[in-house]
Amino acid sequence: MIYTIDIPVSIGQTVYKLGNFYKIVETKVEAIVVRAEGTYVKLECNSVYETSLKTLGRTWWLTLEDAETWVEKNNKKIL
Predict the structure, then answer these.
(1) CB 43 within 8 A of CB 15
(2) Are 64 and 26 in contact (CB under 8 A)?
C-alpha cells in the first residue's frame, strides 16, 4: 500500500517561528521527518528538536504576515 503526504514546506524554505517573549524568529527548514506518529520539521533555529506539522499556524508560519497576524490577534507584543 502506498500513502501520500501533503507537506506544505520544503527543505531550505524560510519560515517564521514564535520565539521567547512572542518575538517572531526567521528560520529555515533543515529536514522533514516522517514517523508513524506524525510528520515533523527540523528548524534551523532549534534543530535539536522536531516541530510537528500540527503546530503550523500556531507556533510557526509560512509567511511573516501570517505570524504577525497571529501575534496581533492573540494580543501579544512583537518585540
Answers:
(1) yes
(2) yes
